[in-house]
Amino acid sequence: xxxxxVFDLDGxxxxxxxxxxxxxxxxxGRFGFGPYTVEQYKYFVGDGAAVLVERCLEAGGDxxxxxxxxxxxxxxxxxxxxxMYRVKPYEGIKELLSALKERGVKLAVLSxxxxxxxxxxxxxxxxxxxxxxxxxxTEGIQRKPSPEGVFYILKQLKLSAEDILYLGDTGxxxxxxxxxxxxxxxxxxxxxxxxxxxxxxxDAVIENPLKLLDYL
Length: 216
Hints:
Blueprint: E1 4-7, E2 14-15, H1 17-29, H2 38-44, H3 49-59, H4 68-82, E3 88-89, H5 93-102, E4 106-114, H6 115-126, E5 133-137, H7 148-157, E6 164-168, H8 171-180, E7 183-187, H9 194-199, E8 204-206
Parallel strand pairs: 1-4, 1-6, 4-5, 6-7, 7-8
Antiparallel strand pairs: 2-3
């Protein structure tokens, strides 16, 4: 049996798209960009806040990122205010976490969301003690799709890649899990398509959270 599960956050544990849209629309709007649709944001997200801002600028015609520095600073400030705006766990996630804990499986979060905001969201939705390790984008650890975050988690848990499942909803997540040597599961309830997950070599794709138990 697997000894731990590493979860992506946005689009996997929680539906956070409203908070991201609210923050980015407000921040980028101050420089004449947006607003953008929910579907656009589902493809802007996934690779960290800086890349999110770059994609917003590009969608508005600033392909040279002329406004990046000021827009990124504004987004960080606004997102701190709206980090929890309409954030909620996906149906079945809390039941999955309870089932995993009953089996003695360790739980970890690896997100490209800034670390402080990642910790805040997890604490607000799941409490202080649900997850054994929570890791957001942190200086000194390359963001996904680098496997460095997975390796950091494995070291803290004293486990190897063969001991874990990696669950995420984007191609970036599948690349991360595969690069770490983990069994990688795609979440179909998130922000991206089955085709994207399979193209990035998901070992399995599941339609609801409790199906993850089949792969322990």
